[in-house]
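Hey, resending since the last one bounced:
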Amino acid sequence: MAAYILRRFLLVIPTLFGIMVINFALVQFVPGGPVEQIIAQMQGSGDVFEGFAGGGGDAGATETLGSNDNYAGRQGLPPELIEELNAQFGLDKPPLERFIQMIGNYLRFDFGESYFRKIDVTELVMEKMPVSISLGLWSTLIAYMISIPMGIRKALSDGSRFDTWTSGMIIAAYAIPSFLFAILLLVLFAGGSYWQIFPLRGLTSDNWEELSLLAKIGDYFWHIALPVIASTIGAFATLTLLTKNSFLDEIKKQYVMTARAKGLSERRVLYGHVFRNAMLIVIAGFPAVFIGVFFSGSLIIETIFSLDGLGRLGFEAAVARDYPVIFGTLFIFGLMSLVVGIVSDIMYVLVDPRIDFEKREG
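The C-alpha coordinates again:
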Protein backbone atom coordinates (compact mmCIF):
# COMPACT_ATOMS: atom_id res chain seq x y z
CA MET A 1 0.00 0.00 0.00
CA ALA A 2 2.88 2.36 0.78
CA ALA A 3 4.33 1.92 -2.71
CA TYR A 4 0.91 2.59 -4.27
CA ILE A 5 0.42 5.79 -2.25
CA LEU A 6 3.92 6.96 -3.19
CA ARG A 7 3.18 6.42 -6.89
CA ARG A 8 -0.09 8.31 -6.56
CA PHE A 9 1.64 11.26 -4.89
CA LEU A 10 4.30 11.29 -7.61
CA LEU A 11 1.52 11.40 -10.24
CA VAL A 12 0.13 14.52 -8.59
CA ILE A 13 3.01 16.59 -9.99
CA PRO A 14 2.52 15.93 -13.75
CA THR A 15 -1.25 15.97 -13.38
CA LEU A 16 -1.27 19.35 -11.66
CA PHE A 17 1.26 20.67 -14.17
CA GLY A 18 -1.00 19.57 -17.04
CA ILE A 19 -4.00 21.31 -15.46
CA MET A 20 -2.04 24.56 -15.16
CA VAL A 21 -0.68 24.35 -18.73
CA ILE A 22 -4.11 23.80 -20.28
CA ASN A 23 -5.80 26.58 -18.33
CA PHE A 24 -2.95 29.04 -18.84
CA ALA A 25 -3.05 28.39 -22.60
CA LEU A 26 -6.83 28.85 -22.71
CA VAL A 27 -6.63 32.19 -20.90
CA GLN A 28 -4.29 33.51 -23.60
CA PHE A 29 -7.13 33.26 -26.15
CA VAL A 30 -9.78 34.93 -23.99
CA PRO A 31 -10.42 38.53 -25.11
CA GLY A 32 -9.73 41.28 -22.63
CA GLY A 33 -7.47 41.30 -19.62
CA PRO A 34 -6.64 43.17 -16.41
CA VAL A 35 -5.29 46.15 -18.38
CA GLU A 36 -8.59 46.54 -20.21
CA GLN A 37 -10.41 46.31 -16.87
CA ILE A 38 -8.31 49.15 -15.46
CA ILE A 39 -8.85 51.27 -18.57
CA ALA A 40 -12.60 50.71 -18.42
CA GLN A 41 -12.60 51.78 -14.78
CA MET A 42 -10.52 54.88 -15.57
CA GLN A 43 -12.96 55.86 -18.31
CA GLY A 44 -15.92 55.61 -15.91
CA SER A 45 -17.33 52.31 -17.22
CA GLY A 46 -17.79 51.07 -13.67
CA ASP A 47 -15.95 49.05 -11.10
CA VAL A 48 -14.46 45.75 -12.23
CA PHE A 49 -16.73 43.91 -9.77
CA GLU A 50 -19.94 45.61 -10.88
CA GLY A 51 -22.32 44.86 -13.70
CA PHE A 52 -21.83 41.09 -13.80
CA ALA A 53 -25.37 40.62 -15.08
CA GLY A 54 -24.74 42.90 -18.07
CA GLY A 55 -26.18 46.21 -19.07
CA GLY A 56 -25.84 48.92 -21.64
CA GLY A 57 -22.62 50.52 -20.37
CA ASP A 58 -20.95 47.23 -19.47
CA ALA A 59 -21.87 45.64 -22.78
CA GLY A 60 -20.31 48.53 -24.63
CA ALA A 61 -17.17 48.22 -22.54
CA THR A 62 -17.00 44.48 -23.15
CA GLU A 63 -17.11 44.94 -26.91
CA THR A 64 -14.00 47.14 -26.75
CA LEU A 65 -11.84 44.68 -24.82
CA GLY A 66 -10.65 42.75 -27.83
CA SER A 67 -7.65 44.94 -28.65
CA ASN A 68 -5.47 47.10 -26.42
CA ASP A 69 -4.39 49.51 -29.14
CA ASN A 70 -7.82 50.07 -30.65
CA TYR A 71 -9.39 50.52 -27.24
CA ALA A 72 -6.73 52.98 -26.11
CA GLY A 73 -6.85 54.85 -29.41
CA ARG A 74 -10.62 55.32 -29.31
CA GLN A 75 -10.40 56.62 -25.77
CA GLY A 76 -7.40 58.85 -26.50
CA LEU A 77 -5.13 57.16 -23.94
CA PRO A 78 -1.37 57.50 -24.45
CA PRO A 79 0.56 54.32 -25.39
CA GLU A 80 2.96 55.00 -22.50
CA LEU A 81 0.13 54.42 -20.04
CA ILE A 82 -0.74 51.10 -21.68
CA GLU A 83 2.89 50.00 -21.55
CA GLU A 84 3.14 51.01 -17.90
CA LEU A 85 0.04 49.00 -17.01
CA ASN A 86 1.31 45.95 -18.92
CA ALA A 87 4.63 46.18 -17.06
CA GLN A 88 2.82 46.56 -13.73
CA PHE A 89 0.89 43.32 -14.29
CA GLY A 90 3.87 41.54 -15.85
CA LEU A 91 2.08 41.20 -19.18
CA ASP A 92 4.98 42.74 -21.11
CA LYS A 93 6.79 39.40 -20.93
CA PRO A 94 6.24 36.46 -23.33
CA PRO A 95 3.60 33.94 -22.19
CA LEU A 96 6.13 31.12 -21.77
CA GLU A 97 8.32 33.24 -19.51
CA ARG A 98 5.31 34.28 -17.44
CA PHE A 99 4.17 30.66 -17.09
CA ILE A 100 7.60 29.42 -15.98
CA GLN A 101 7.87 32.24 -13.45
CA MET A 102 4.35 31.50 -12.15
CA ILE A 103 5.03 27.77 -11.71
CA GLY A 104 8.32 28.55 -9.95
CA ASN A 105 6.49 30.79 -7.49
CA TYR A 106 3.73 28.23 -6.96
CA LEU A 107 6.25 25.53 -6.10
CA ARG A 108 7.26 27.80 -3.22
CA PHE A 109 3.55 28.33 -2.45
CA ASP A 110 3.89 31.98 -3.38
CA PHE A 111 0.63 32.78 -5.18
CA GLY A 112 1.18 36.49 -5.54
CA GLU A 113 -1.20 39.36 -4.89
CA SER A 114 -4.62 40.08 -6.36
CA TYR A 115 -4.48 42.73 -9.08
CA PHE A 116 -7.53 44.63 -7.86
CA ARG A 117 -7.80 43.84 -4.15
CA LYS A 118 -4.13 44.30 -3.20
CA ILE A 119 -4.33 41.24 -0.93
CA ASP A 120 -2.25 38.06 -1.06
CA VAL A 121 -4.12 35.27 -2.83
CA THR A 122 -3.52 32.91 0.10
CA GLU A 123 -4.94 35.43 2.54
CA LEU A 124 -7.90 36.04 0.24
CA VAL A 125 -8.67 32.31 -0.02
CA MET A 126 -8.40 31.84 3.75
CA GLU A 127 -10.76 34.78 4.23
CA LYS A 128 -13.43 33.19 2.01
CA MET A 129 -12.83 29.60 3.12
CA PRO A 130 -15.15 29.51 6.19
CA VAL A 131 -18.24 30.11 4.06
CA SER A 132 -17.45 27.36 1.54
CA ILE A 133 -16.35 24.91 4.24
CA SER A 134 -19.58 25.57 6.14
CA LEU A 135 -21.70 24.85 3.09
CA GLY A 136 -19.68 21.81 1.99
CA LEU A 137 -19.21 20.17 5.39
CA TRP A 138 -22.72 20.56 6.77
CA SER A 139 -24.37 19.69 3.44
CA THR A 140 -22.31 16.49 3.22
CA LEU A 141 -22.95 15.49 6.85
CA ILE A 142 -26.69 16.07 6.57
CA ALA A 143 -26.81 14.18 3.27
CA TYR A 144 -25.12 11.17 4.91
CA MET A 145 -27.33 11.39 8.01
CA ILE A 146 -30.41 11.21 5.77
CA SER A 147 -29.14 8.84 3.10
CA ILE A 148 -27.75 5.98 5.18
CA PRO A 149 -30.80 5.33 7.43
CA MET A 150 -33.23 5.87 4.56
CA GLY A 151 -31.23 3.66 2.20
CA ILE A 152 -31.10 0.83 4.76
CA ARG A 153 -34.82 1.12 5.43
CA LYS A 154 -35.61 1.11 1.70
CA ALA A 155 -33.45 -1.99 1.18
CA LEU A 156 -35.16 -3.87 4.02
CA SER A 157 -38.62 -2.91 2.74
CA ASP A 158 -37.87 -3.17 -0.97
CA GLY A 159 -41.03 -2.92 -3.04
CA SER A 160 -43.19 -1.78 -0.12
CA ARG A 161 -45.31 1.36 0.01
CA PHE A 162 -42.60 3.10 2.04
CA ASP A 163 -40.03 2.30 -0.64
CA THR A 164 -42.33 3.61 -3.36
CA TRP A 165 -43.26 6.97 -1.87
CA THR A 166 -39.76 7.69 -0.60
CA SER A 167 -38.42 7.00 -4.09
CA GLY A 168 -40.91 9.54 -5.41
CA MET A 169 -39.72 12.09 -2.85
CA ILE A 170 -36.08 11.45 -3.75
CA ILE A 171 -36.72 11.87 -7.47
CA ALA A 172 -38.66 15.09 -6.86
CA ALA A 173 -35.90 16.49 -4.62
CA TYR A 174 -33.23 15.56 -7.16
CA ALA A 175 -35.19 17.24 -9.96
CA ILE A 176 -35.57 20.58 -8.15
CA PRO A 177 -32.71 22.98 -9.02
CA SER A 178 -30.89 24.11 -5.90
CA PHE A 179 -31.15 27.79 -6.84
CA LEU A 180 -34.92 27.54 -7.32
CA PHE A 181 -35.31 25.84 -3.96
CA ALA A 182 -33.08 28.50 -2.39
CA ILE A 183 -35.34 31.26 -3.73
CA LEU A 184 -38.38 29.39 -2.40
CA LEU A 185 -36.78 29.21 1.05
CA LEU A 186 -36.06 32.93 0.97
CA VAL A 187 -39.63 33.76 -0.02
CA LEU A 188 -41.13 31.53 2.65
CA PHE A 189 -38.78 31.90 5.62
CA ALA A 190 -36.57 34.95 5.13
CA GLY A 191 -39.12 37.72 4.92
CA GLY A 192 -39.87 37.43 1.21
CA SER A 193 -43.66 37.24 1.44
CA TYR A 194 -44.48 35.08 4.44
CA TRP A 195 -42.37 34.50 7.59
CA GLN A 196 -39.26 36.32 8.81
CA ILE A 197 -37.68 33.37 10.63
CA PHE A 198 -34.15 33.29 9.23
CA PRO A 199 -31.78 36.12 8.28
CA LEU A 200 -31.59 37.19 4.67
CA ARG A 201 -27.83 37.48 4.26
CA GLY A 202 -24.40 36.83 5.75
CA LEU A 203 -22.83 34.08 7.83
CA THR A 204 -23.05 35.93 11.16
CA SER A 205 -24.89 38.88 12.68
CA ASP A 206 -23.44 42.39 12.93
CA ASN A 207 -23.07 42.07 16.71
CA TRP A 208 -21.19 38.75 16.46
CA GLU A 209 -18.24 39.92 18.55
CA GLU A 210 -20.53 40.97 21.42
CA LEU A 211 -22.27 37.59 21.71
CA SER A 212 -21.44 34.84 24.18
CA LEU A 213 -20.05 31.50 22.99
CA LEU A 214 -23.44 29.75 22.99
CA ALA A 215 -25.05 32.75 21.32
CA LYS A 216 -22.35 32.71 18.63
CA ILE A 217 -22.98 29.02 17.93
CA GLY A 218 -26.71 29.62 17.71
CA ASP A 219 -26.24 32.68 15.51
CA TYR A 220 -23.97 30.74 13.15
CA PHE A 221 -26.45 27.89 12.67
CA TRP A 222 -29.30 30.40 12.36
CA HIS A 223 -27.55 32.03 9.40
CA ILE A 224 -26.30 28.84 7.74
CA ALA A 225 -29.58 26.87 7.98
CA LEU A 226 -31.24 27.95 4.72
CA PRO A 227 -28.11 27.82 2.52
CA VAL A 228 -27.25 24.33 3.79
CA ILE A 229 -30.80 23.06 3.22
CA ALA A 230 -30.73 24.48 -0.31
CA SER A 231 -27.37 22.83 -1.00
CA THR A 232 -28.49 19.47 0.41
CA ILE A 233 -31.84 19.14 -1.37
CA GLY A 234 -30.49 17.05 -4.24
CA ALA A 235 -27.29 15.75 -2.68
CA PHE A 236 -28.80 12.87 -0.72
CA ALA A 237 -30.66 11.31 -3.68
CA THR A 238 -27.66 9.50 -5.17
CA LEU A 239 -26.33 8.47 -1.76
CA THR A 240 -29.70 7.04 -0.69
CA LEU A 241 -30.09 4.91 -3.81
CA LEU A 242 -26.44 3.86 -3.59
CA THR A 243 -26.94 2.74 0.02
CA LYS A 244 -30.11 0.84 -0.86
CA ASN A 245 -28.54 -0.98 -3.80
CA SER A 246 -25.42 -1.84 -1.79
CA PHE A 247 -27.53 -3.39 0.97
CA LEU A 248 -29.68 -5.30 -1.51
CA ASP A 249 -26.59 -6.76 -3.16
CA GLU A 250 -25.08 -7.84 0.16
CA ILE A 251 -28.33 -9.26 1.59
CA LYS A 252 -28.59 -11.68 -1.35
CA LYS A 253 -25.08 -13.11 -0.87
CA GLN A 254 -24.34 -16.59 0.49
CA TYR A 255 -22.65 -15.50 3.72
CA VAL A 256 -25.86 -13.74 4.82
CA MET A 257 -27.89 -16.92 4.30
CA THR A 258 -25.24 -18.88 6.23
CA ALA A 259 -25.33 -16.42 9.13
CA ARG A 260 -29.12 -16.67 9.31
CA ALA A 261 -28.95 -20.47 9.17
CA LYS A 262 -26.63 -20.42 12.21
CA GLY A 263 -29.41 -18.75 14.20
CA LEU A 264 -28.02 -15.21 14.36
CA SER A 265 -30.59 -12.51 14.94
CA GLU A 266 -31.61 -10.34 12.02
CA ARG A 267 -30.11 -7.29 13.72
CA ARG A 268 -26.77 -9.11 14.23
CA VAL A 269 -26.75 -10.24 10.60
CA LEU A 270 -27.62 -6.78 9.32
CA TYR A 271 -25.29 -4.64 11.41
CA GLY A 272 -22.62 -7.20 12.26
CA HIS A 273 -22.01 -8.54 8.75
CA VAL A 274 -23.93 -6.72 6.02
CA PHE A 275 -23.40 -3.12 7.16
CA ARG A 276 -19.61 -3.10 6.91
CA ASN A 277 -19.53 -4.55 3.40
CA ALA A 278 -22.48 -2.51 2.11
CA MET A 279 -21.17 0.76 3.52
CA LEU A 280 -17.72 0.35 2.00
CA ILE A 281 -18.31 2.47 -1.08
CA VAL A 282 -20.56 4.95 0.77
CA ILE A 283 -18.31 5.68 3.76
CA ALA A 284 -15.03 5.52 1.87
CA GLY A 285 -16.35 8.00 -0.66
CA PHE A 286 -16.98 10.69 1.99
CA PRO A 287 -13.89 12.78 1.11
CA ALA A 288 -14.79 12.80 -2.58
CA VAL A 289 -18.42 13.70 -1.84
CA PHE A 290 -17.34 16.55 0.43
CA ILE A 291 -14.92 17.98 -2.11
CA GLY A 292 -17.64 17.72 -4.77
CA VAL A 293 -20.12 19.68 -2.67
CA PHE A 294 -17.33 22.06 -1.66
CA PHE A 295 -16.48 23.00 -5.25
CA SER A 296 -19.71 22.64 -7.20
CA GLY A 297 -22.91 24.62 -7.01
CA SER A 298 -21.70 27.12 -4.41
CA LEU A 299 -21.73 30.23 -6.63
CA ILE A 300 -25.51 30.51 -7.01
CA ILE A 301 -26.20 29.63 -3.36
CA GLU A 302 -23.64 32.17 -2.16
CA THR A 303 -25.10 34.83 -4.44
CA ILE A 304 -28.72 34.22 -3.41
CA PHE A 305 -27.91 34.26 0.31
CA SER A 306 -25.29 37.04 0.04
CA LEU A 307 -22.46 34.83 1.29
CA ASP A 308 -18.93 35.86 0.42
CA GLY A 309 -17.29 32.51 -0.29
CA LEU A 310 -14.95 30.89 -2.77
CA GLY A 311 -17.64 30.54 -5.43
CA ARG A 312 -18.14 34.28 -5.71
CA LEU A 313 -14.40 34.86 -5.40
CA GLY A 314 -13.68 32.66 -8.42
CA PHE A 315 -16.48 34.21 -10.46
CA GLU A 316 -15.39 37.78 -9.73
CA ALA A 317 -11.76 36.90 -10.49
CA ALA A 318 -12.74 35.38 -13.86
CA VAL A 319 -14.86 38.39 -14.83
CA ALA A 320 -12.21 40.90 -13.75
CA ARG A 321 -9.35 38.83 -15.29
CA ASP A 322 -7.62 38.78 -11.92
CA TYR A 323 -5.02 36.24 -13.04
CA PRO A 324 -3.22 35.70 -9.70
CA VAL A 325 -6.53 34.77 -8.05
CA ILE A 326 -7.65 32.62 -10.99
CA PHE A 327 -4.46 30.56 -11.26
CA GLY A 328 -3.68 30.60 -7.54
CA THR A 329 -7.07 29.16 -6.59
CA LEU A 330 -6.90 26.73 -9.52
CA PHE A 331 -3.55 25.42 -8.24
CA ILE A 332 -4.77 25.16 -4.64
CA PHE A 333 -8.06 23.45 -5.50
CA GLY A 334 -6.45 21.16 -8.08
CA LEU A 335 -3.91 20.04 -5.48
CA MET A 336 -6.69 19.53 -2.92
CA SER A 337 -8.75 17.42 -5.35
CA LEU A 338 -5.81 15.18 -6.24
CA VAL A 339 -4.86 14.67 -2.58
CA VAL A 340 -8.49 13.93 -1.67
CA GLY A 341 -8.52 11.22 -4.34
CA ILE A 342 -5.59 9.55 -2.57
CA VAL A 343 -7.31 9.96 0.81
CA SER A 344 -10.40 8.22 -0.63
CA ASP A 345 -8.29 5.22 -1.62
CA ILE A 346 -6.78 5.10 1.87
CA MET A 347 -10.30 5.21 3.32
CA TYR A 348 -11.26 2.18 1.25
CA VAL A 349 -8.38 0.20 2.75
CA LEU A 350 -9.17 1.35 6.30
CA VAL A 351 -12.83 0.37 5.94
CA ASP A 352 -12.00 -2.98 4.30
CA PRO A 353 -8.38 -4.22 4.73
CA ARG A 354 -9.06 -6.93 2.12
CA ILE A 355 -8.70 -4.33 -0.62
CA ASP A 356 -5.18 -4.24 -2.07
CA PHE A 357 -4.64 -1.66 -4.81
CA GLU A 358 -1.11 -2.90 -5.53
CA LYS A 359 -2.35 -6.40 -6.43
CA ARG A 360 -5.10 -4.91 -8.59
CA GLU A 361 -2.55 -2.87 -10.50
CA GLY A 362 -0.39 -5.92 -11.00
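The first helix runs from residue 2 to 28.

Sorry for the duplicate.
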